[in-house]
Design a protein that fits this description.
heterodimer; A: alpha+beta; OB fold (Dihydrolipoamide Acetyltransferase, E2P); 4 helices; 20% helix; B: alpha+beta; Gyrase A, domain 2; Elongation Factor Tu (Ef-tu), domain 3; six-stranded mixed sheet; 8 helices
Chain lengths: 128, 368
Amino acid sequence: MYPADLKYTKDHEWIKIQENGTALVGITHYAQEALGDVVFVDLPEVGDNLALGDEFGTVESVKTVSELFAPASGTVTELNVGLTDHPEYVNEDPYGKGWMLKFQLTGAIPSDLLDAIAYEALVGSESH
Amino acid sequence: MSEIKKTPLNAAHRTLGAKMVDFGGWDMPVQYPAGILAEHEAVRTKAGLFDVSHMGELRVVGKDALNYLQYLTPNDVASLSIGQVHYTAFLYENGTFVDDLLIYKEAEEEYLLVVNAGNIEKDFHWALEHTKGFDVQVTNESDATAEVALQGPLSEQILRPLCDLALGEMGYYYFRHGKVAGVPALISRTGYTGEDGFEVYVVAEAAEKIWHAILDAGAPLGLIPTGLGARNTLRLECRMSLYGHEINDTTNALEAGLGWIVKLNKDADFIGKKALALAKAQGLERKVVGFKTTEKRDIARDGMSVVKDGERIGYVTSGGPCLTVGANIGLAYVPTGMAAVGGKLQIDIRGRAVEAEIIPTPFYKRKK
């Protein structure tokens, strides 16, 4: 449920840092399960600059809404436009078809990102 | 914090893979693995089964039961026949809500009151406090009673083979005592989803038996277990009030749009009558309206402000995606002068002033 090649944040996002200095971002299995059926994902524009920790969007589910926070600093290069018509991808495939945006890292990779084992321990302690 | 309460079906929910949440101090299923969208759809097109055992049951018995309830509640209890149910409330002197509830007339001197889970203790005390001068006994049967709600167009077809009553003859908001899967039960044609359906009350010990019997009988027809998440989206589409949202101790019964349960003309005096008669004569300052927003991203949520020129002039009481109608909808308190259908509102959604249009309610109505 928490792929080993991803890094995770305490805000329940995942980030996949690629060799060319770009990164993909989405929300974790734990987050999508907590939200329930996702009905809309509000994302920034291509070209927007995000600083680490910035709120960059929201995920609306049937029962609630949750903010998205930038897991690193960077410039948005691509959005997952497929989510416009298929927000349910976030529930069905949070690390695949449910990715949200791609950005070009502009700063250092934050040191407090969690690996899969540490993240699983975190969510294990949050759920009953 | 007191310990979280559990219904007799708690283990059954966990076995079914439900996601459990703390709902007003109760450990309740918000959804099952199907998810809220699928559960909502099941109730609109086939059927869903809800555990509503957290609801409270108060029994009023005695020579003065009718007069007592006429005083305690605004609807006209004298108009109920034995075997009939109506929607009503406990109001404070100022016309705001202690709670909303159903009254079942069991016999000439016996009534069953079904109240909200989070208000059981408050309601029981409220009822006891007002027995002075009336020959009645009020007992709290909540812990001993389980309740399930079978809701959806196939409800009668599912329940019929399990039940010894002629369900086809039972009208909306009527009830009878009979058996479900061999278990003595009170069965009413009531619900909180806007669909046809039944609510079944049994002793707590029999909850699992009827839960499984109904689920097994209905599964081939598409019945699935449904949680509080779907219960909320379903009731919102039908513009049914939810305590803590549209109604609470700061909202009066008229502005909440529940004037139809306030029988100012009934013979008896009742708690809240004077204040509501005055409020009606003076005109209401605000009202609950239904609204929709156009853009997919603009989903209003409980507590958001209705604004005008940057000032908060009202607030959203319930909001979310309307799953059957396919727009984002909500309910809000707004000044009466702005409450006409077709009017435009602005709602502050996380710092953006989003335009909403006031539309007629209910948002969804089943075809008869």
